[in-house]
Amino acid sequence: MMQFSAVVRELRKWLTSFAVVNVVLPFAQYTLFGGLGLLFLYELLLKILPYSSYDTIDLLFTTIPLYAIGYFAFFSGIWLTLISPRIRELPIALWGYAFVILFPFEGLTLLLIVRAVIYILAGWALFRYTTAVGAGREGNPYSG
Description:
Oligomer: single chain
Number of domains: 1
Low-confidence stretches: none
Distance between the termini: 20 Å
Helix content: over 70%
Transmembrane segments: 20-42, 62-82, 94-127
Structural class: mainly alpha
Keywords: Membrane, Transmembrane, Transmembrane helix
Number of helices: 7
Number of strands: 0
Strand content: under 5%
Radius of gyration: 17 Å
Order of helices and strands: HHHHHHH
């Protein structure tokens, strides 16, 4: 855990050297969970709306690239949350993304299951890291 703390500390120094990161860092949680919400909304709308409304969904999420915006917002939110003081919410987002991967729970393939397991394990590892750092056992790089 100490090595990962050092990596996070150096990553934070490097990323905050860019001015744009300092501007968007307060919005890390919004980009993380907003992107996750857009991805889930897309899957949910595909599941519950009738086929006749597919043109509208296609317009919103493909022509106006809301799906791509949600995807990139989620993954940029991961990096921003990793260097922010609110790192404790990152495992929840990773577990939520695993849920979005599996959401319709139909046509589960080995690829989907492996992708979900990777995010679940990453969330579990980050949860262990945040609890160790939060308890003060490893030295909290974000104590203020």
